[in-house]
Each structure stands twice: as C-alpha cells, then as structure tokens.
Write a structure and sequence with these properties.
Distance between the termini: 72 Å
Radius of gyration: 28 Å
CATH topology of the largest domain: Heat Shock Protein 90
Number of domains: 3
CATH superfamily of the largest domain: Histidine kinase-like ATPase, C-terminal domain
CATH class of the largest domain: Alpha Beta
Number of helices: 20
Strand content: 15-25%
Number of strands: 22
Shape: flat
Helix content: 25-40%
Amino acid sequence: MSTKANSAKYEAENIQVLEGLEAVRRRPGMYVGGTDVKALHHLVYEVVDNSIDEALAGECTRIEVYIHKDDSVSVRDNGRGIPVGMHPTMKKSALEVVMTTLHAGGKFGGGGYKVSGGLHGVGVSAVNALSEWCEVEVRREGKVHFQRYERGTPKGAVKVIGKSDASESGTKTTYKYDPQIFKEEMELRFDTLVQRFREMAFVTRGVTIFFSDERTNREMTFYFEGGITSFVRYLNRNRETLHPVSYVEKQIEGIGIEAAIQYTDAFTESVYSFANTINTVDGGTHLTGLRASLTRVINDYSRKGGLLKDADPNFSGDDTREGLTAIVSIKHPDPQFESQTKVKLMNPEVQTYVTQIVAEAFYTFLEENPQAARAIVAKCLTSARARDAARKARDLVIRKSALESLTLPGKLADCSERDSTKTELYIVEGDSAGGSAKQGRDRHFQAILPLRGKILNTERARLDKILGNNEVKALISALGTGIGDNLDIEGLRYGRVIIMTDADVDGSHIRTLLLTFFFRYMPTLIEGGHLYIAQPPLYRIAYKNTVKYTYSDKEKDKTIKEMAAGDKASIQRYKGLGEMNPEQLWETTMNPANRTLLQVTVDDAAEADRTFDMLMGDAVDPRRRFIQTHAKAVRNLDV
C-alpha cells in the first residue's frame, strides 16, 4: 500500500515555464544530442549548416571556418546575411529573434529558402544558448551590424559598427562553448571536422569550404565540381573498380534526387545517404529506395539477359550490395527527420521517387554498358554462392542444440556474473598473456579469451572464409551475437569487449586486424559503445620503495625527474603482457579503479571505410604512401 505522506507537492505553482533559451540549457541532449565531445562538434555543424543553406539557395559560394587559439569558433559566409530589420510582431531586430528564439528562422515556408538542412529553427539559437559568449556580424546593404550574447542573453541591441562594400554581404558567427554545460575536458578535433566539411563540399557542388585551425596552424580547402561522383571516386581510389561511375540527377515533385553508383572488387558495401547535405548516418527512406532499386534492376537485367537461369533463385539484397559504393543525396523542401540531430530521413514519398529514378537510370546504364553489366552480375553470382557457403559455416559456428543454448570455445575463461551489463571480455594475444590475464583478473565479472596468432585479415576475405577461421569462430561464439546481417546485439554476453594486445608491432597488427573485423562485421558493437582498447603500461620505474608505471616515453621521463632518481632508478620496458606477473597486469591494466580504457568510436563512417580499405586492402601503393607520410608520427616502434 502506497503512502502519500512524503510525496512531492504537485500544484499549479509547480508548473515551470522555461523562458527564452533556458530550455536548451536545461536539456541540451534534446537539441544537440548531449554534452559530450560529439555534441561539441554538433555545435559547429549547426552554424555551418546555416551557411550551407545559403549555398543551396544559390546565394553563397564560400564558407570559412576558424578554430581560434582560445577554442572559440568562427563561421563566415558570403551569403545574404541574416536580416537585421525590425521584426513586425516581435518588435526587435530579426537578427536578435533568430539568435535568441527557438523555432525562429526563414525555413518554415516564408519564401526565404526552398531547401534547407536547418528545419526546426533551433540550430543557431541552440548554439547561442550553449555558448559562454557569442558574437554575430552581418554585412548587408553597405553596413556591418553587430550583436553580442552571453549564455544566450543579448548584451545590448543590434548596432552598426562600420561600413562595408555595397556588393559585400554575409554573416560571421563567433562563439565559445560554455564550460558550465560541456564540463568534461574535451576539444574540437581537426580530423573529425575535416571529414564533415569534405562531405558537405561533395554534396554541395560549387561551394568552397575553407577550414583553418589556428591552434595547430593546419588548414584545408574543399571544392568539388563533380559533386557526389567525385565522392564515389574518392572512396574507391584504393579499390579496383568494375566500371565508371553511374550517375543520375532528377527533380520530381519539387524534390531533387542524386545518386552515384560504382561496383568494386571489395567484399563489403560502402553506401552513404544525405538529405539537404546532412549525412543521415542511420539512413532512411532514400537509402531504402536506392538499395531496393539496385536489387530489382540487377535481377530483372539478369533474367532478361539469361545470366540467371530459371532454376536459379533471385539475387538477395546482400548479393547485389557486395562491393557496392554509392551515394544518394536528396534535396527536399520539407524533410522529416527522426530527431533534431537528423540521423534518419522519414519521408515515405522519398523511397518511391528514389526507387523509380535510380531504377530507370541504372537499367539504362546496364543496357548501354554490357561489359560493366556482366562484371556486376558475375560479382553478384560469386557473392550468392559465397553467401550460401557462409550461411552453412555460420550455422556451424552458432549452432544451437536442445541440450546447450550456445557452444562456448574451450579456451574461453568465463566469468560467474550473468548480467551482461556488468561483465567484460578481454581479448588477449597468446597463451602467455592469456595465462597472466586469467590469474590476475576478477573472476566474478571478467572473462578472458586468448587468441593464438593473428586472426584472418577480414578486409581481404569473404564471410565464408572468415567463418572457417578458428580464432574468428571462437570470438563469435564467445560474444553470442552472431555476425553480419544476422547480428543480434541482444545476445551480447559482455557489456565491454576489451582488446588487450602487446605494445609492439605485432600487438598493433593484431589490434588492427580485430578492429577491421569489428568494423566490417560487428559495427553495432562499436555504435553501442561496447568496444574498448586496453592501455597497458610501457615502463615500470622502481626507486627505493616506490614503484610507478608509465604509459609513454614523455611520462617516463617526467616521472624519473619527479622521483629525482636519475640513473639510480630501475627501469623495465614491457614489450609484452606476458612479461608482467598477474598482480602487475591486474593493477595496471585490468583493475577498474586504476586502468585506462580507450573507447572505440566511429565519427565518420565513410572515412573509416576508406582508411580500413587503404590499410588492410590489396592495393600496396596507397599503404606505402600512408606509411611514408606518417612515419615520423609513430609513437611506439620496436627496433
């Protein structure tokens, strides 16, 4: 029986009304996805998206982005400039309305934009709300207008601070994120932003995006006249292609649709979707339409051309997507996204239009390029046969019987805890490290899976061959999720999957092989935040009765200096985990109270795809160039 004696008071005066931008500051997750490093980058994207919208309207040809030394960010464009005149109903400058009012903007059917990525009118005002300070300069009609805000509140009215050339127009927004909101120690990453700006330039033909990081004096400029055709060529530059890029662009019912398609000799699919230049990482109706049309067209062409016999089953979607690189980009006047962070497109009519347009264009391409068509169909036939062999191999790997729910590998040292949210699986190399890890672990929640030697390079093998590899089979069985298209994250037996390899060349290679496998065949583990890399120490420094572990040469030198030990300190360099006794391994690398884990994330799937293909694929020259370029940046090299 419940008691109301201690229940909270709930009366009219308890109903809160959040004024202005206070709602954004109270619930930043609703507007930018959280307060982590991903959300920090999302602030930049929101401001740049406004400039991209000007480019889509045909009013902007250049966008400049600067990260200043104090971590503030400036975004400047040569668009029309945010209107500064008096708003008829709000009775204040339109600039102030845009910057301080949620759901205010020129994208709600007022004629300002036919197509835009910013739809809810919360983007730049949310950035303003989550900034310690923000300043906006607008060049319009020969004047420079200015307003400053602190945590979303205007510090004075919009004022004219100078003159500009009558032909000049545009907006410059400078902001510094608020440490009261983004409390963790984090910083904007040059490489993450570079990938995003490159994508924006690919899907917004004819716009120049200049990016400068004043903290490191690095800068990049992007301009692609070829649009998404150039994007596909960029993704496939290290792969053997089967035919030239097939491209289609068409408008239907006011919706602009572009698709670029090319098949390669790879075993995986690289398909990316964009809506109003925004990378919809979870896909949506445009991606579904693209995939459905390709499967239908290849089956129809194969049947009519006699390349598929009457007794042969149709190709599945998986068969027609092996080796596919494709981009689909739509420009919609009223796109519906799953959330403010715009990761999935929901408009049902888009699927119909994309399917229709891509099917017509790709069928014509196959008819006009019979050699390319035969190569694509041959690829699909090989894929279908391999997929059947993979299905049989998969059944052997995860076969269930009436007596056992899942056959676990004999080498696995399991833990006693059955709640997967509390458990960890350490993947370690070799029996020596496996022995130390098994002895040093907490048996209650830590399981150990030692791998013998290097697993198969999954970038260069089809799934049937991968599933024939004993080390891969042991890994799949231990995790309990299945693999590839049959992966079910609900079956994951361990909340954390931790790769723990030696700090040498072989250890790095094994780690890369494992990361390639997870990225290609278990990406849900990465997306769900389940995959980690352990950070074992490089040095053990002992002086008198003090022992310290360090994780880099710089830290080692600093520690020795602090101990004032000089040459008297005993320094041990660990080349392998097996060199540590179980107590040392537990204390430095496995004890949750002391250890350091790196969580594996994928900020940009397209760039990760290209990088894994370059590092682990068949082409030698790109890999050699990469090694020569980055040789000086190597941190741990055993000579």
